[in-house]
Design brief:
- It is a single chain.
- This protein has one domain: 4-Layer Sandwich (Purple Acid Phosphatase, chain A, domain 2).
- 26% of the residues lie in helices and 27% in strands.
- The chain is globular.
């Protein structure tokens, strides 16, 4: 299984480098967006990044929010993600094939929920004939 992951695109700031990386990326089974897809809550840039991603990646895309996707606007980001076929995980775990994807929403020092998303991936490995 091939899983690709990227974080800290920060919208327009790293968009061209992200596009170049996508050009070099071979087929993947799952693509993870690990937060800070946009910069300072720029919803338009979030859409542009997802459009660039979907132009090159047909695999399922799962994402978490970072601290640049402000919590009070998460509903708008969720609608955009859904329009691009992107699943946003929020403080939950999900299984993709043999990989377990867990997300955690950390609180900032003021106790604000959904301050930053964290992704952990573990995979069950089977050994023996054919593996």
């Amino acid at each position: 299984m091939r899983i690709a992951a990227v974080g800290d695109i920060h919208g327009q700031e790293n968009l061209e480098a992200f596009r170049a990386d996508l050009e070099r990326l071979g087929p993947v089974d799952l693509f993870l967006l690990a937060g800070d897809t946009t910069e300072r809550n720029d919803h338009g840039a979030f859409d542009v990044v997802l459009t660039a991603l979907r132009a090159r990646v047909e695999a399922p895309v799962w994402a978490v929010f970072g601290n640049n996707e402000y919590a009070h606007d998460h509903p708008a980001y969720l609608r955009t993600a859904e329009a691009h076929g992107v699943r946003v995980l929020q403080d939950e775990s999900a299984t993709f094939s043999s990989a377990q994807i867990c997300t955690f929403e950390d609180a900032d020092n003021a106790g604000n929920a959904a301050f930053q998303g964290t992704v952990a991936v573990s995979q069950t490995t089977t050994t023996g004939p054919g593996y």
